[in-house]
Amino acid sequence: MFTKEDLMQFDTRKKLVALAKKKGIKVKKTLKRTKYEEQLRSLQIELAFLQQHIEKNKLRVAVIFEGRDAAGKGGSIKRFVEHLNPHSSGVVALAKPTEVERGQWYFQRYIEVLPNRGEIKFFDRSWYNRAVVEPVMGFCTHEQHKTFMAQVPNFEHMLHEDGIKIIKFWFDISKEEQKKRFDDRKNNPLKEWKFSPVDLKAQELWDENTKYKERMFTETHTAYSPWTIVETNDKETARLESLRHVLSQFDYKGKGSSGASLLTDPNVIYRYFRKPKTFDL
């Protein structure tokens, strides 16, 4: 272990790493975490600049987070909003629809929480519940799903024409990583609240979710509202890359002045490309 004297005599990370090697102290994990926190801080500074740009220019921005259960959507959203001005930003995480809402047009309750001028909103799941989760879990009928799929491109085109910038993320992890995260939730009293009845069936219905996910991409990926895939089993990488992608979509005062790298890793984050449909629903 390092002594107090060790820590006091070095003023650079390089010297400290050299001493760690000499003493046989493993610091790889600690250094990785430190590097992550440095990058995160710089990207959050950039995000603050972006928020000022959104406020000044009265923009309306909606960032949608969809993906596999336990893929890290909530953790990423937390890093987006934790240092933003809450008066012009917010998280949308709607509960299951009420009896009244079930009798309304499906998109109606989402329209009510869209960003106003000068706001950026982060959707922890969205209207795309009806594209994957609801049909897989039997929460909607075949006809309701079919109607949704026919309407959503037009709905998003109307939002686009009205000036709302929509950024759609799909967070993806491996089946093995999902199970590992579920087990972690079940065995951690501080995370147990995250484990839902839907999660219980996620592994069992993995292939069914994949089928509906692919149809969603094929029919709702458009030039004005494309899907961006975030594919990694590393939570910290997913957070940094999704931040970089959002920042890359805008030109704002002070861009890059934090020293943060704003180039995304194409092996982690990429735009969906249509593939031939290989199934029927």
TrEMBL record:
<dbReference type="InterPro" id="IPR022488">
    <property type="entry name" value="PPK2-related"/>
</dbReference>
<dbReference type="InterPro" id="IPR016898">
    <property type="entry name" value="Polyphosphate_phosphotransfera"/>
</dbReference>
<comment type="subunit">
    <text>Homotetramer.</text>
</comment>
<keyword id="KW-0418">Kinase</keyword>
<comment type="similarity">
    <text>Belongs to the polyphosphate kinase 2 (PPK2) family. Class I subfamily.</text>
</comment>
<keyword id="KW-0808">Transferase</keyword>
<keyword id="KW-0175">Coiled coil</keyword>
<dbReference type="GO" id="GO:0008976">
    <property type="term" value="F:polyphosphate kinase activity"/>
</dbReference>
<comment type="function">
    <text>Uses inorganic polyphosphate (polyP) as a donor to convert GDP to GTP or ADP to ATP.</text>
</comment>
<dbReference type="Pfam" id="PF03976">
    <property type="entry name" value="PPK2"/>
</dbReference>
<dbReference type="InterPro" id="IPR022486">
    <property type="entry name" value="PPK2_PA0141"/>
</dbReference>
<feature type="domain" description="Polyphosphate kinase-2-related">
    <location>
        <begin position="31"/>
        <end position="255"/>
    </location>
</feature>
<feature type="coiled-coil region">
    <location>
        <begin position="33"/>
        <end position="60"/>
    </location>
</feature>
<dbReference type="InterPro" id="IPR027417">
    <property type="entry name" value="P-loop_NTPase"/>
</dbReference>
<protein>
    <recommendedName>
        <fullName>ADP/GDP-polyphosphate phosphotransferase</fullName>
        <ecNumber>2.7.4.-</ecNumber>
    </recommendedName>
</protein>
